[in-house]
Amino acid sequence: MHISSRVKAVPASGIRKFFDIVSQMEDVISLGVGEPDFVTPWRIREACIYSLEKGYTTYTSNYGLLELRELLSAYIEGKYGVRYDPRNQVLITVGVSEAIDLALRAILEPGEEVIVPEPCFVAYQPCVVFACGVPVPVGTGSETGFVPRPEQIESAVTPKTRAIMISFPSNPTGAVMPRDDLQALVDIAKAHDLYIISDEIYDKLIYGVEHTCVASLDGAYERTIYLNGFSKAYAMTGWRIGYAASNPDVIEAMIKIHQYIIMCAPITAQMAAIEALKNGEGDMLEMIRQYDRRRRLIVGALNGMGLECLEPKGAFYAFPCIKSAGLSSDEFAERLLFEEKVAVVPGNVFGKCGEGYIRCSYATSLQNIQQAMERMARFVQKVNQ
Amino acid sequence: MKEILRILEEDSRLGVEEIASMTGKSPEEVKAIIEDYECKGIIRCYKTVVDWEKVGEEPVIAFIDVKVSPERGVGFDDIAERIYRFPEVRAVYLVSGQHDLRVQVTGKSMKEVAFFVAEKLATIDRVQSTNTHFMLKRYKEDGVIFEVPEGDRRLAITP
């Protein structure tokens, strides 16, 4: 039977291949997990359970519960000084994943281009393709801290460009894009009348620096589609709850798609999200404290064994360079897995410029990190002999 | 540097090098800070939480609420000290509510604990009454859950 050529055009996931290998093996320490190792804080789960006991099981407004939208609107305004009207500028989605898809489908004509700085989350480019767009990757490297230079973005703009899609703090690099660099990117978007789709899912997982909300920058508000969610900060990955905020026209277009394909995000997840916003900050800060400790430990260990690793200022990933080992990312990851039973993700999964790097997630216990680092050091020493 | 204290409170086995790595300080600084805390009594001791049932020993633990007649100028401190000097007393707290002191006692059997309360605790001058509760099951102690820990349910690799 026929399969859409657009779908066929998207290559098989590199992550999937590794997952299949790792799941066949025992006693592997996985540094390949892109979600928190914490369970959702009990008070948030309890609020959801209580809502079920009380019978909250129906559809909500397509936009999502008004209370949740109001809390989010107040939160964003309080933290970043950006005002979104909860009645028509905030949309609750099934994870940021759905919001990405809606945003792209809402703004793209077939064949239009979206500039996507790499290394980046594996879904961005496929989502552009599924939305009938053309992804235009812009590679970055450790020499710029995995942050795209303005001239790189400028040279990628063509008459077909509709949007730039970014995500900082970044998965897989942990990089945080400095305010000045973001402003330069916004200036380019303004000059060419482009959208900026900004996935800020890791905005709270930030260490020693301030996060810049893209929509708060000069000239950004009217053209930014701000995406965020609860998965990483509140350990709510499986709940599938995220949100988009933008100008009313964009949200109206997004909701047109959302209402037909999804109706609304699950009410139980929305009730839990309300509790997270009202009372979850303490739990969230404790998780961030734990991530910060692990971050310093893993980065210290990676540099100590000769794998040059820039200090990630956000998210929960380290992205060390493995070129000194004389192996490709795939070879390094496979051999490390089979010889020392440590799983990492080859950097090329996140874009061609990720070749020569690996992604190590520190969303795992201190003990696991310590053990994994010992095994990796042993492996690196062996390879270098 | 309270972060060092929090780290040690969770895992006192972590070495100076690791704590240095986690806090961005040098090992020498961390060592000096820890020694200073030890001198000042901020770090009182390094303990291990043991599940004795798993090695076939089931110590009997009891919580005893003690009502005391207060004495002017003395308060409760002297009587608390008199109680905590007994090695079988694991903890003593001054508490609000209907009783004054909450005492945790451990022994080899219920009889041994009961006799300790009757002969040593209740007989102290100024102790008006005691109310003993034997611990039946320990679920969580010192922040450590005693139930069988769940494994990592996450998929091994995710984007």
What is the class of the largest domain in chain A in the CATH system? Alpha Beta
Helix proportion of chain A: 40-55%
Count of DSSP E strands of chain A? 12
| CATH class designation of the largest domain in chain B | Alpha Beta
Return Rg of chain B in Å. 21 Å
What is the molecular shape of chain B? extended
Task: Give, in spatial order, the strands making up the sheet with the most strands of chain B.
Answer: 2-3-1-4
Write structural notes for this entry.
The complex is a heterodimer of chains A (385) and B (159). Chain A is an alpha/beta fold and 385 residues long. Chain A folds into 2 domains: 139 residues, Aspartate Aminotransferase, domain 1, CATH 3.90.1150; 238 residues, 3-Layer(aba) Sandwich (Aspartate Aminotransferase, domain 2). Chain A contains 13 helices and 12 strands. In chain A, the strands form 3 sheets. Chain A has a 7-stranded mixed β-sheet with strand order 2-8-7-6-5-3-4, with helices on both faces. In chain A, helix 11 packs parallel to helix 13. In chain B, helix 2 crosses helix 3. Chain B has a 4-stranded antiparallel β-sheet. In chain B, strand 2 and strand 3 form a beta hairpin. Chain B is extended. Chain B has 159 residues and is an alpha+beta fold. Chain B is built from 5 helices and 6 strands; from the N terminus they run αααβαββαβββ. Chain B is 32% helix and 21% strand. The model of chain B has no long low-confidence stretch (mean pLDDT 91). Chain B folds into 2 domains: 39 residues; 83 residues, Alpha-Beta Plaits (2-Layer Sandwich), CATH 3.30.70. The two termini of chain B are 36 Å apart. The interface between A and B is medium-sized, with 31 and 17 residues.
